[in-house]
Structure formats: C-alpha cells, structure tokens
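Today's session is about reading a structure prediction critically. Students often jump straight to the picture, but the first step is always the sequence itself: look for stretches that repeat, for charged clusters, for runs of hydrophobic residues. Only then move on to the predicted structure, which in these notes is written as discrete structure tokens rather than atom positions. Here is the chain we will use throughout the hour.
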Amino acid sequence: TLASVLTEGVRNTIGDSRVKVTYEPEYVPAVPPAMPDIPLEQLAAMIKATVRVEVLDGNMAYLKIQHIIGEEMAQKVGPLLLEYIWDKILPTSAMILDFRSAISGEISGIPYIVSYYTDAEPQIHIDSVYDRTLDITTELWSMPTLLGKRYGTSKPLIILTSKNTLGVAEDVAYCLQNLKRATIVGENTAGGTVKIDKIRVGDTDFYVSVPSAKSINPITGKSWEIYGVAPDVSVSAEDALDTAIAIIQLRAE
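Below is the predicted structure for this chain, in token form.
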C-alpha cells in the first residue's frame, strides 16, 4: 500500500508515469545472461514463437514482431531470419509491420530494422540515445551493409500500433515515421522508454523503477517518451490491420 501511495505521489509531482515504486522482499536483481550456445534448431523455434510472417492477398507482407532482437542475436540467427522471414516477404509489393504487441527489445536492434527500409547510402542519423548513468550520448546511424537485400524506399510500409506498444518498438516506429518512410496506423503508443533501471531504496525492500536513458530524434529534436508515438491514421488497435490493408489497396489503385 505504501509503495502504491509513493508511486502516485512521485508521478503526480514529476509528471512521469514511467516511474514506479514497488515493495519486493523477495526481489533478486537480474543479471543479463551471456549469449547462450543454443542449437540453431532451438533458436529457430524461439524466433517462430515471437514473430509471425504471412503473405496476404494483394502481395502484401504481414510481419508481427513482439520482441526486437539486438545486434548480437541478429548476427547469430541472421541466416535463420533470412530463410524463415525475409526471403518470404522480400518480393512483396507492400509491407505491414505489426507492433501492437511489441513490448520489449534491444536498443542495438533499432538500426537493423530501420536500415532495411532505407538506402545504403548516404547513411542517415536516425536516433540519439542519452544514457544518464554514464552521461554519454550514442548516435544511431543507418547501416551501409546488411545481411540480405533491403526492402527499399519505394514500396509502401505501414506500422500498426496500440496503446501497449512499448519501448524500442516505439523508437523504431518514430524513426521511420519521421523519415517519411512509414505510415503509422492504430493507437497512440504507451510512451515508455528505451531503458529502465530498478534501484533499491537504501537498506529496504522498496525499489524505484526509473528511466535511465532518453531517446532524442535528430529530425524533430524531441522524444516519443512519456507521450508516445501519435499515429498518422488513428483507429482502434482491433481495426488497424483492416485499415492498413485498405490504405495499401487504395494507393495501388
């Protein structure tokens, strides 16, 4: 009860809904595991569990992503990604990226996704991430070389969002939206952050979850955090896919 009251008080004071106070007597800090030596068959199963790929009527690609993998994982499973996902949807004439259930991801995965929808040259400054803990700003740029072919810059790309779309997926959507490369269809996103740290309060069982990094878009000079990414076409999450299909069909006509 006290944690709930403190959370409400802090949020009202600083106007940041991402900050949360919790009481967790049994909490054990998570240690990020090293990249496990998992057989490729198991990695393929993991990918299939978090990614859904389909070619819809009208030669439209539909790609649903729940977790955006980072650079290290992308390099390890690259051939699987090409075989299971990319080679199937590369020949399509339009693509729908479904981020409505995307709630986790790695910052290093942002340039990977964005680069597949931009040209190899010139490189584009797509994002800057300021780490408050280290007091360092890291610039994210599009990648000149990629595994497999690029989807290109001319074919329609629509990203589906919901009020649950969170964190790194919000960043990808905001980058592609402001590069004028994608149309966002759905709901205003959650307004999360690219990184959250959980800090113990003194010698107690209370913890504060607080954003420890900030994304700043080089085009807008602003961040999508707290307020979320506003869709170009605002519809309920349930209607987003049908609306996206209708938009692509209309453009084709």
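Discussion point for the tutorial: The two ends are 58 Å apart (CA to CA).
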